[in-house]
Protein 1
Amino acid sequence: MKTVEKMEFSYLQQAKDYVDEVYEMVKKRNPDQVEFQQAVKEVFDSLIPVLAKHPNYMQQAILERMVEPERTITFRVPWVDDKGKVRVNRGYRVQFSSALGPYKGGIRFHPTVNESIIKFLGFEQTFKNSLTGQPIGGAKGGADFDPKGKSEMEIMRFTQSFMTELSKHIGPDLDVPAGDIGVGAKEIGYMFGQYKKLRGAYEAGVLTGKGIGYGGSLARKEATGYGTAYFMDAMFKDNGLSLDGCKVIVSGSGNVSIYAMEKMVELGANVIACSDSDGYIYDENGIYLETVKRLKEEEQGRIREYIKEHPHAMFKEGCSGIWEIPCDIALPCATQNEIDDSAARLLVANGVKAVGEGANMPTTLEAIEIFLENNILFAPAKAVNAGGVAVSALEMAQNSARLAWSFEEVDSKLYEIMNNIYTTSTKAAEDYGQPGNLVLGANIAGFIKVADAMIAQGII
Ligand code: NDP
Ligand code: 2IT
């Protein structure tokens, strides 16, 4: 073996050993955090060729540093319900990385929230934000509060109490939260009001996803879903395919799902099914999106009510059954680990061409493996759903400049960012020997910028 080849071989083995060793440490130090472990494993497995080529990252202990959040805050959120009873929830903010800019990432209100969930989301957010090319670090927060069945006043009181503590840790140049599951423009509005009152100043850039009348950006509401569709379109075109007439299944019927459906339809596809946590609807000629929007955005209704207005459609209890419907494109846009190995096998057997992760980590590691082995076009979350946070960063830019761009201006910037993310991830996958593997490409491209910034800034 020539000396250079020997050297590369030895670095490859060293990189594999290093990744194994740090991953074992992650499991040992975070024993119950299975979602966090899963997110770390996915990234680490992609990084072996980068570490082998640039051993400096190993010498700088970059992975050990990346898996430890810069700061984790947990706090009590006491509030009083409508019956006068005192209730207590647990709040979190995990400030993962400030290598590229102020901490940035959403807030989730859902009963399943715990430290593992918030850490997996914060870890992924760091690489996603890096991929956007904008100056934003990574963070995530939330609470194990269930907004379902709560009155308007209960939601407001809870959200104000949450912000009373969170306000001590955020700021326009420090940490800028936004929405996620269970947190939309209404909750962001209550949070902004409470922050403003406590801070005694109008700091518009402290939160993104605000209402348009007080510092919000046009197209932020649509951004994650539209961005997902723009990315799928770029991927299809690059592979000589077209979205025209493709049958699409979208899980969930929240913010990401609704606007992914809207743009996919605009781009010529036909969305035939969507869901909520009760079950899914199947309308073989195409979902009437106006009905879904009214039910979900205005009436806080359930997806089962769709069939009252469209009796030819079908509603089925349970959300996992949605993947049994044959389709060309599957867009999981609800929550983590929605597609497991058996759902993935079914989708492949039914002829799926592409999968796009509108939600964060909706596909298990085994299911990703199945899609990649079967040459299904697979768009990973960090790349395909980055449009939301990208427009959040554009909202921050508008707030700093004290001006507001038109919908068209923001939307065209979003389109450009999504196409750049596609190109950057595709190129990284090619450069590291696995063309078409965008899981690898997105992880590598996101990682390199963060790692280089960390090294440049010293051991801090
Ligand atoms: P929403 O709260 O607006 O909608 C969530 C949807 O998913 C609802 O239809 C909800 O159903 C369903 N859902 C939530 N949890 C579960 C669960 N455990 N099981 C089954 N269904 C569930 O959230 P978003 O649309 O904002 O977020 C959806 C996903 O997209 C999340 O993974 C989020 O992290 C990710 N994301 C969001 C971004 C954003 O800008 N909002 C940006 C990038 C990613 P039900 O109403 O019955 O609870
Ligand atoms: O997962 C995500 O990227 C988000 N929930 C959006 C974060 C943001 O800061 O806009």
Note: The first strand starts at residue 71 and ends at 80.
Protein 2
Amino acid sequence: MMKDHIKVHGLAFRPYLSQEQIAERVGEIGQQISRDYEGKSPLFLAVLNGAFMFAADLIRACAIDCSITFIRLSSYEGLNSSGKLKTVIGLQKEDVKGQDVIIIEDIVDTGHTMSEFLPQLAEMEPASVAIASLLVKTEALECDIDIQYTGFEIPMKFVIGYGLDYDGRGRNIPDIYQLAD
Ligand code: 5GP
């Protein structure tokens, strides 16, 4: 059961997506990836910190041979995306070269993080690249990026839970909550 509202660091959030809704959609994406990558062995790149929970559920929903590694790209603090990407930590060219890569993101907001990371990834010569993002703020997108697997398109409102934080808190909440007006 979701609470009718929660407070994190003094801010009020209201229920948005329940753990049941999330689990159902993650299962569907897992099946879709399993079909699309049949006979292949993709490498999942889970973007820390936010995507750890989605990644754990998504790879269990994928019934194919695969591997996973975790990377860090984030430069996000507070409620607004700064659009500044720091260095990519945890990835070597030899991990990626010739691999069918599926990036696992928690949320794509402006798209700057992904559009800055994709060229860096391309230099590592993967065989193919796809993006799976649990949430996409479609109206906030400022970059032309292809997202092959979208969990939910959501409005331009700050969300927490299921791995997503507000200043470090709220990642453990099993459901997703949206900032109250
Ligand atoms: P972008 O570069 O696409 O604008 O931002 C991507 C990153 O911003 C995400 O990986 C995430 O860390 C952060 N972000 C964007 N919107 C939200 C949000 O509503 N909630 C939280 N917790 N993080 C967000």
Note: Helices lie at 19-36, 52-60, 93-96, 112-122.
